[in-house]
Design brief:
The chain contains 7 helices and 5 strands, in the order βββαβααβαααα. The chain is α/β, with parallel strands linked by helices. The chain has one domain (23-185): Nucleotidyltransferase, domain 5. A 5-stranded mixed sheet has the order 3-2-1-4-5, with helices on both faces. The relative contact order is 0.19.
Amino acid sequence: MPALPIAPNLLNRNFTVAAPNLAWSGDITYIPTEEGWLFLAVVIDLFSRKVVGWSMQPDMRRNLVIDTLEMAWFQRRAESTTKLIFHSDRGGQYASHEFRAVLEQHGIRASMSRKGNCWDNAPTETLFGSMKVERLHGQRFSTIRQAKDRCLPVRDASERSLPVAARIREAAKNLSPGQTPRSYLQMPTGPYSPFPVASF
C-alpha cells in the first residue's frame, strides 16, 4: 500500500497570526471509559485560540476529523481566498485522501508537523493537556455518554469560567475567544489600518 501524502510544515510554529481564518490547527485526543474509548477532535483558530470545530466519536476513523473541519468551515464561513492554513500532525486521518479532498474543496492549504514533534502543534496540545488536568483528572466514566457530557465545555470554554479560558484571554490581550473576532471587525479600516476587514 502506498504511503499517505505528508504536507510541508507551512505553519512552522507561527502561532501568532494577524487575523481570523488565516491559520487553524487540529488534533485528536482520547478519553477512556468502561464502554471503550471516546475520541475528541478539535479545530482551533490560532488568531483567537477559540475552538471553532469539534467532534466526538467512539472510533478514530476519517469522519472524525472530516466532521470537525466541516463544522469549523460552517461556523466561521471562511472564504477560500484567505489562503487559510490547516495544521495537524501526520496522523493517518489527516493524511487520508478523503480529508485532503475536503481541504482542497474549501481551498485550504494543508500543513503538517515534523515527524514526532508535538511542539509544532503546541496550541492544540496545550488545550488538550489543560482540559485533561482541569476537567478530566481523577474522573472515571462508566459510559461514553458520561465522558461526552464532561468534555462538551471544550466547545465554548470562552463562555465558562474555566482556568483554560482565562489563559486564552490573557494570550489574546484579555479578550475572550468569542470576543476576539468581533473586536477585530471593529478595528478601523482604511489606508492606515493595520488589518484588512475579516470575513468569517
